[in-house]
Each structure stands twice: as C-alpha cells, then as structure tokens.
Amino acid sequence: MKFRQVYQQFFAKIRIFSRKLYLRLRNRDISWKRALLKSVLFAITAVMSALILLVVLVYAGVFGKLPTTNDLESIRNPLASEVYSADSILMGRYYIQNRLDLREGEMTPVIVNALLDTEDARFYKHGGIDIRSLFRVVIKTILLGHEGSGGGSTITQQLAKNIYPRRDFGFLSLPVNKIREMLIAIRLEHIYTKDEILRLYLNTVPFGEDTYGIKTAAKLYFDKQPRELNLEEAAMLVGMLKATGYYNPRKYPERSKQRRNIVLGQLAHYDYLSEKTVDSLQSLPIDLHYSALPYYAGIAPYFREYLRNDMEEWCSSHNKANGEAYNLYTDGLKIYTTIDSRMQKHAVDAVKAQMKRLQDIFDREWEKQNLWKTLGKGETDYILTRSGVKENDTTATPITVFSYDGDKEKRMTREDSVKYFMHFLQAGFLVMDVSTAGLKAWVGGIDFKYFKFDHVLSKRQPGSAFKPLVYLAALQDGIKPCDFYPNDSVVYEDYENWSPGNAENTYGGMYSVKGALTHSINTVTAALIMKTGTEPVLDLAKKAGISSELPDVPSIALGTASVSLFDMVQVYRSFAAGGITRKPVYLTGITDGRGNTLYERTEEMAATRVCTREDADILTAMLENVVNHGTGAAIRSTYDLPGEIAGKTGTSQNHADGWFMGYTPELVAGAWVGGELPAIRFRSFRYGQGSAAALPIFAGFLKRLYADTAFEKMKYASFNIDDDVRKMLDCEDYREKEPLQKRILDKIRTFKLFRWKRHNDKSPDRPDNN
Question: Is 99 helix (H, G, I), strand (E, B) or coil?
Fold first, then answer.
C-alpha cells in the first residue's frame, strides 16, 4: 500500500508540473510546436522512468518473489492419473486438471507451424521478448489502457502466464503482470531450448471444458493423438487459443471455422502452405469426433470410484524420490486393472436392456395407483426427509433428469425430483474370473451420472441365493444329496414360533436335498439348518467371503440377513473354484509418468479352503440342476444358453430384492435388482422375484459374451466333475409320501426284526433276555 501511495504521488507531481508548464507557455510568446515537443518528451521520459522503476521493483520482489532458476527447472504440471483395463483400454482419469503431457517426439510440424505462424512468428529469433511487439504493447495496452489489444506476448511469455497465473495488484495489475511475465520468460529462455519451451507451452495451455494441453484437446475434440491431427484440425485447435470459450467448436462451430480459416491463412502468409491448398482446406467443415471424458464418464465408473479409495491409500503410503507422497490427482500415474473393457461393455448392455424393460413394467404396474400413497405417509416422509426435502418447498425449477431415452429437461420442485429419481429400479452386476479371482466387470447402478450409490457394495437381503451355504454345511455334516425330507409346514416354538413357508404355499410330499435346493423349498432348508445348527453355516459364510455380521438365528438359512453383492460373488466363486476362496483382485500394476514400475502384482492372493473339493463339486452339480430344471431354468428355456452353468435365484421378503448368482467353469457373476430403498418394489411377486428381475441380466451378459468371437470358446468349458460325484445325485427331486398304512406296517416289520435279532444274539457279553 505504501508503494502505491508513492507511485500515485509521483504521477500527481508530474501532472502538477505539466499544468504549470502549460500556464507558463501560454503566457509566453514561443512556438507551440516547441512547447508540445518538450511536453511529449517530458511525458515519455516520466513514463519510461516509471516503467524502469516498476521493473526494478518487480525484479526486487516487491510484488511477490519471482521464481528462481531451480523453480523453473523443476516446472511440473498437475497430470491426470490414468486407469487402464486388462486389454489396455483407457477407462478414465483422476485429476484436478484434465491434462496429458506431450512427450518428446509427439510435437509434430503441423502443430508447431500453425502455432508459430499465428501466435509468434519470430519465436526462434527472440530471447523471450519480442521488441517490435513490445512497443505495440507499451503504446496500446499500457499507455492507452486497452487491455484487449494484447498481441505483444511471445509464446515464452504466455508459457510464463500459464505456469504462474496473473495476480491482482489493483490499478497496477496489468503492467506488473506483464513485467513479471517478461522477466520469467527471459529466465525460461536461458534454461530451456526453444523446442522444450514449445512443448511446455502446448502442455499448459487451456482448451476449455476443463481441458489442458493439446494432447488432451486432440483426444477431446477429435479422439486422436496429436501426431494423427491433420492440417485443418491442428489449425482449429491453435485458433481456439485466442479465446477458448468463444471459439469452442462444439458450441460455436461457425465461429470456430472462421478462426480456423484465419490460422490457415497465416500458414499461407508465411509460405508453409500454398494459397490453393489453403482455399481447399478453408472450404472444409469442422469434423468433430467429440469424446468428452468427465470424471464420471468412461469405462466402469463405479469400479473406478471403488479403486479411488485404494489408490489414495496407496499414494499416501508411498513416496517419490524427493520424499513427498504420491498424489493420485497430479502425478500422472498409470494404473492397470483386471477389468476387461469388452466384458464391461457386455455387462453394461445387459443391465441397461433388462432395466429399461423392467422399468416400463414397473411404471405400468403403478400407473393406476400412486406409489407414494400406497407406501403410506410414514415411509414417504422418511424418504423425503432423508433426501433433504423441506416442508412447503413448492418452488419449481428447471433441472436435467435421467431417462432411458436420454437426458430430459423438466421443471420440478425438490420433492417432485426426489420422487422422480427414487421411482427408478436399480441394479448391481459383478463379474469375476474363477481361476484368478480377478474382477472383470462392475456395474453399480443404472447410470453413474445421476445415481452415485454403488449397489455392488450396498447390503440387501439375498433371499434364497444364500441357501447354498446351508446345503454345503449339510453336506459337511454327512447329509447326502439324495436324502429325502418331508415338505411339511413346521412351527419352531423355541425360535419365537418361527414357521418358514414356501414361496407358493405348497406343501406335502418329500424332497431330496438336491430337489429342495433345485426348487428352493424353504421348509427343507429350515430343517437342514436345524439339523446342522447355525454355527457351521456362519463359519462357512465368513470363510467364503461374507464380511457382514450375520445374526445367529435359523432364519439366516432363508437369506434374511443383509449382505453385499460383492461378498456374494466371492462366496459363489469359492464353489466354482473347488472349495477355495481368495480375496478379489483388481489392481495389477502402477507406473509413473515415465513408465517406471511402482507396483506390480506377481503373487497370487492367499487362498483359504472353505470345503473339500468333493463337497464343492456336489454343490456345483446341485446348482447345475437349479439351472437345468429348477428356479433358474429360464437360462435354458428362454435364453437357450449352452454350456455348463450353475446358479441360484434369490428373492427377499416382499420381493423387494431380486438376485441371481451364477457361474460357469471360467466366470462367476452376480446380479441384484431392486429399489433404491426396499419400500420401492413391485406390487406383484411375478416381476420382483430373482428369476424375473435379476436372472435376465446374467443370461443377457452370457448371451452377449458367447456371441463375441473373443470369448465364444468359453461356452465349451467344463466343470470336470467326476462321474462318481454325479452318481451321488442320481435320484428324483420329489416323491409323494408313502401311504400311512404302509409306513405303519414297515415300522412293525422293522420292530419285529429288531426283536428277533436281539433274541438270537448268542454274545456272552449280552445278558439273558429271560
């Protein structure tokens, strides 16, 4: 502030002196030309003196310390870290600024000539400051105060401005910032070669839409690498530098074309192109291949959010050579994962196709009844309060909302918008490799842009999808697949009169253990957990991968506890892998921006045996029967899928959650479908059950996968289950109970035979029956 006062006083004295000089000259008889010349010379001298003083003060650091040589030698732009799939496809980026750096050899003559002929034709002749342009700046920008005149900054000065953005110094902002940029430019020219300066500039310049650097811009607007740009594309990007928003080709194609043609004209002016070539290029339309990649776009955004947490933790515990911890958003890391981009696409397509169809059915089912009135005021108020809706908030505003036909503009109150978004059914779908436990596809919802909550990780009731753990515990307890149990409705008085019922309230007859799992018979499942006890089931669940705390009650046999799809896929993978479980694998490697390896997964994850290979194979054979003849039979009858497939449907209470867990010899996958909250559900059981809601996602995924030439051989893979194991399942699923009279006679015969054996036992150790 003190310097500002001195500066103002200095110019005030100049004005006073000029006024006095004018009055003296007016009273004297001397030439007006001579007087005017003296005044002009004096003014120029005063201004030059002021500028020299200002330069000295800026150089001395009065307006902030200038970057040192060491600072400039270690110039480093914040670089986006990139995530890659197993098949080397860019999935997305983590960034503060969406920036990719040009590397040596990527800066083509097309880009360089377009840039130099437009922005700085004498670039290779000056040392950071172009004196000819400087005079124009002094007269137009500083003396006349035309901030928009510009035109005097060299590329090196513009680089200085990009690296060290301008600051506010009040009415001195423009001259002080210009002087700072000149001084920094001179230092840059002493440190870097001209080509290095060009590359630094092209890496730092903004191109609008949160995009920095020509490499990122080429990807954004043309889906190309810089070396692939043709003349007119390079000219368009260079033309944007004058005003990136004003000349945005997506928003203002005509403006962008006019500016591009000016750049092409400059190339002709400096003899880089012929007039004939320029005329032909100027007539071409702008052919954009816009490929925006905001943080939520790209491949597997739900997975990338899950990975983000792990990567932030990894970065905080690993240091660079300078001792600083890695930064996920600025250090330009390359992150390699197990996700397969092709499988991910098939998974997304399967989810979208099923959910669009299912949402239409859901909307029609509720068309004649108000969903929110049916739920009741209590549940509706809970949903609205949880979403932050305040009472008497009736103001409608325009918002963009999700629809399966694309984004739509609507005017809604906050309450209306919450109800609109909450009425959409959601889905989660996860695919894992059986042999490696590597994650291959991850779909956490129907649209990440609008629905951030990840339903691969959310916890919901799995219903009958949990039952295989009960049947595995029964196998370990010595129960055989062909042991038969009565399908009777039983009240368990010791457990608060718990009386498990079957889905369709059908009872009677006898089911084999295999048949009870195939047809998802609750009464038999309850009888099995009563025989084995809950503890073996809980132990198996924990070993196989369920991280949720499960209640120690028999009703867990029917899937009443809340678990995540992420955990359930691990459980089913242990069945498919012969009774061995491993933690999921998804990160395979990390390199820095120069390609140096920072992390590489070479070892397999530690394995835990959940059950014997034989028991796992028996369970797999039983789950194959589910797909071939039971609740999962639509996989064969409706979708006509070939190959060996095992699986299990699941439906929770009030059909709020529909599940299907399935696997082939090479892949295991799980699908969940339901409302954002359990209260949002189908009115009827028909569409809410797992076989109708979730199974089509699994089947649709396999259908697409097997039609893909890259994966078609998967349908020929085999579980390699021994014939002896399959013979253990050689029995019917269901049989009628024998007549009561026959059962009584059988018991009498058994009793007589037992007494006859005891009477004829001659063992000396047995006391005499008489």
Answer: strand
When divided into structural domains, the chain yields a total of 3
Q: How would you class 762 by CB atoms within 10 Å of its CB: exposed for 0-12, middle for 13-18, buried for 19 or more?
A: exposed
Bridge partners (DSSP) of residue 398 are: 411
pLDDT (tens digit per residue) in 631-678: 999 999 999 999 999 999 999 988 899 999 999 999 999 999 999 888
Dump pLDDT digits (tens) for 691-719: 999 999 999 999 999 999 999 999 999 99
Predicted TM-score of the model (pTM): 0.78
Degrees, nearest 5: CA angle 460-559-541: 95
Assigned token pair, 366 = 């509720």
Distance CA 487, CA 503 (A): 13
Indicate whether 288 and 334 sit together in one domain.
no
Q: Pairing mode, if any, of strands 334-337 and 81-84?
A: parallel
Which string of DSSP letters, residue by residue, matches 235-283?
HHHHHHTT-TTTT-TTT-HHHHHHHHHHHHHHHHHTTSS-HHHHHHHHT
Single-letter code of the amino acid located at 452 = K
Task: Please indicate, yes or no, if residue 401 is contained in any of the structural domains.
Answer: no
- Sign of the C-alpha dihedral computed for residues 441, 444, 450 and 452 taken in this order: negative
Residue 393 in any domain: the answer is no
- Domain carrying residue 702: 307-366+423-743
Structure tokens at 34: 């001579």
